[in-house]
Design a protein that fits this description.
By secondary structure, the protein is α+β, with helices and mostly antiparallel strands. The protein is 33% helix and 16% strand. Strands 1, 2, 3, 4, 5, 6 and 7 form a 7-stranded antiparallel β-sheet that branches.
């Protein structure tokens, strides 16, 4: 995975919010600053300060004043050009998702953008720029290892549910609605409605929003589908939970990070040959 510095900078400029107060969370919070509501109650008694207190107030220097800053106003999307540029940021952010930049690292990149704009970068780009690819590979490996562990735990939990079956290859199959027709062969083409999600519930693909079933040759899909679809009868609906090695493995796809365990809810409408 090769990530160029301009791409990295563009993503963080367009689609990243300022970091939260703690670095322990991956979620970037809003820039808004909550200000306590002023009290509308009045003191029961007004006490006139003595002369020494008045003198102390009079002698207060400007350096003792507290500076109050306001939160920056979020950039608005005023027209189609702005929305298109914003979409570019979303696409680029997906392409570098495996970097999983921390809030502190996002702040460093934002500093780099500011320094570059002022013509005063803190490091030599020709020295440190080539190291970006190395960083990307290291981060991707760490993230993939973490997803492997999370996926294995999820598969074990899913296989323990009532009615679930685990195949020898590791697929977890759970029938949701029994079909009354025949089951397809590995060489068949099928018409289906389906929904695909990651184990955290993030949806990455679905035929339902397109309002049109999809057709696939079972010889040209991921191994999990080729094997799992042969267990569903026409008219039936089932859930397939696919280990990463029977899905896309170490190769990232749009919306699907490397080494992701995938969940598919599939309705088999017909066998089309």
């Amino acid at each position: 995975m090769i990530v160029s510095l301009p791409f990295l900078a563009a993503v963080l400029l367009l689609s990243c919010s300022p970091a939260p107060e703690t670095a322990s969370t991956k979620t970037v919070t809003s820039d808004a600053v909550e200000v306590p509501e002023p009290s509308i109650s009045q003191p029961e008694e007004t006490v006139e300060p003595d002369s020494s207190a008045k003198d102390a107030v009079a002698q207060e220097t400007p350096s003792q004043a507290v500076e109050v800053t306001t939160a920056p106003t979020p950039v608005s999307l005023r027209n189609d050009n702005d929305r298109t540029v914003y979409a570019l940021g979303l696409v680029l952010s997906r392409n570098i998702a495996d970097l999983e930049l921390s809030p502190d690292e996002i702040e460093i990149v934002k500093r780099a953008l500011s320094d570059a704009a002022s013509g005063n970068p803190a490091v030599e780009l020709n020295i440190w720029g080539p190291k970006i690819a190395e960083l990307a590979r290291a981060r991707a490996a760490i993230a993939a290892e973490s997803r492997d562990a999370a996926g294995a735990a999820f598969l074990n939990q899913a296989a323990a549910r009532a009615g679930a079956q685990r195949t020898d290859s590791g697929i977890v199959y759970h029938e949701l609605t029994a079909g009354s027709g025949t089951s397809p062969a590995a060489s068949d083409t099928v018409r289906v409605n389906y929904r695909g999600t990651l184990i955290d519930g993030t949806e990455f693909d679905t035929s339902y929003t397109r309002n049109e079933p999809a057709e696939f040759s079972l010889g040209q899909v991921i191994p999990c589908w080729t094997e799992g679809m042969q267990k569903i009868r026409v008219g039936g609906k089932a859930e397939l939970i696919c280990p990463a090695n029977l899905a896309y493995g170490p190769t990232s796809q749009p919306g699907i990070p490397a080494n992701s365990t995938l969940i598919f809810e599939i309705e088999l409408l017909a066998i089309v040959n």
